[in-house]
Every structure is written in C-alpha cells, then in structure tokens.
Design goal:
single chain, 120 residues, alpha/beta, five-stranded parallel β-sheet, 5 helices, 42% helix, globular
C-alpha cells in the first residue's frame, strides 16, 4: 500500500512540474520581461498588423519553432502570446516540455486591442 501512494505522489509531482504557468495578458507589463523573453507565436503577417513592444516573432506552427530556443538559457523565463490564446497554449506546453520556465499570456493580442478600444 505504501508503494501505491508513493507512485501516486510521484505522478502528481511530475504532472505539476510539467504544467506551464499563465497570466492574463492585460496584467502583463514591460517590467515583467526585465530578465525574460516575450514571444509572439503568431504568423509574421499577424505580427506585422500589431504586436506587443519588445516581442520576438516565432511562429509556433513553423518547423523551426523549437530550434529557435536552442540558444536561450533554460533559466530565462519565456512569456508567450498569440491572437486569442490557443496557439500560445500549445507553445507554452512545448517549451515547458523542453525544460523552459514558460508563462502563457491568456487572452492574447485580441484582449489587448479590446482593452484599448474600451478606453476610447
């Protein structure tokens, strides 16, 4: 019985460690990336229509997505966002599985535009 609980505990620890973190994009600020990397995972066409300041564009659907991060230290936090949250979730899961500390910015660029439009 003791080994059964040990296996369950071990499985829970592994699952918890492999999940990426998230934060709503409207709570994000440029000070969050002081020692981090901000990545827009949309296509270059979407990126060209508008993006967050200081973001790098790395298309999650590209075959070279994972290899872009080969030169990035695993200790560096990576914030990811997309249009509405679907692709950034996949990107965060992929980067987390590769050993990066990843934070998915929920709501995506659409939430930023919506917030800006509400202020007008």
């Amino acid at each position: 019985m003791k080994s059964f609980f040990s296996i369950i505990f071990f499985a829970l620890v592994i699952t918890a460690c492999s999940q990426s973190k998230s934060k709503h994009i409207t709570e994000f600020s440029q000070t969050d990336i002081k020692n981090a990397l901000l990545v827009d995972v949309r296509t270059s066409e979407e990126y060209g229509l508008g993006h967050l300041e200081n973001s790098k564009n790395v298309n999650v659907l590209s075959d070279s997505f994972a290899s872009y991060f080969d030169s990035i230290p695993k200790s560096k936090t990576i914030y990811v966002y997309c249009k509405s949250g679907g692709r950034s979730t996949k990107a965060a899961e992929k980067l987390t599985s590769l050993g990066y500390n990843t934070i998915n910015l929920l709501g995506g660029y659409d939430a930023i535009k919506e917030k800006e439009n509400a202020k007008k």
